[in-house]
Amino acid sequence: MDYKKKVASKSNITAAFNSAFAAIFRGLLEKSPKTGEKTTYKALAEHLDVKQQSVSSWANGTTAPDTKHIAPIADYFDVSCDYLLGRIEIKQRDSDGKDAEIKRLTNELETMQMIIRQIMALTDGA
């Protein structure tokens, strides 16, 4: 292998290792937000019904999991899929399973509905 190919290959490996998913995944394996404990490749592989080598490849950034594994991985660590993929910075879901943003929007909607009911009650009585 000539030098240019070797450097290109090494930089591809570095880029893969530092990809958003791989970096976040390694962090979750080191300390699960759910338990605070380190998660072994074996435990996660058994839970997902995949080989340990697959989990290792995901952590190393060599490969990424199939889309069918993203939600189960997020559920296992009790994080959102968006967090797992590096799209948002909110790590944990609320205890009821809702993302914080969804909960905030739901609360706003409920407040608006209450205000509308109060306005309707005032106009009906006038």
The description of the largest β-sheet is: none
- What percent strand? under 5%
CATH architecture of the largest domain: Orthogonal Bundle
Helix content: 55-70%
Multimerization state: single chain
User: Unreliable segments (pLDDT under 50, ≥5 consecutive)?
Assistant: none
From the N-terminal CA to the C-terminal CA, the straight-line distance is 86 Å
Structure write-up:
The protein is mainly alpha-helical. The chain has seven helices and no strands. It folds into two domains: 3-93, Orthogonal Bundle (434 Repressor (Amino-terminal Domain)); 94-126. The protein has helices spanning 3-17, 20-30, 41-48, 52-60, 67-77, 81-84, 100-125. Helix 3 (41-48) packs across helix 4 (52-60). The protein starts with a helix and ends with a helix. The model has no long low-confidence stretch (mean pLDDT 80).
In short:
The chain has helices spanning 3-17, 20-30, 41-48, 52-60, 67-77, 81-84, 100-125.
Reconstruct the topology from this structure.
Layout: H1 3-17, H2 20-30, H3 41-48, H4 52-60, H5 67-77, H6 81-84, H7 100-125
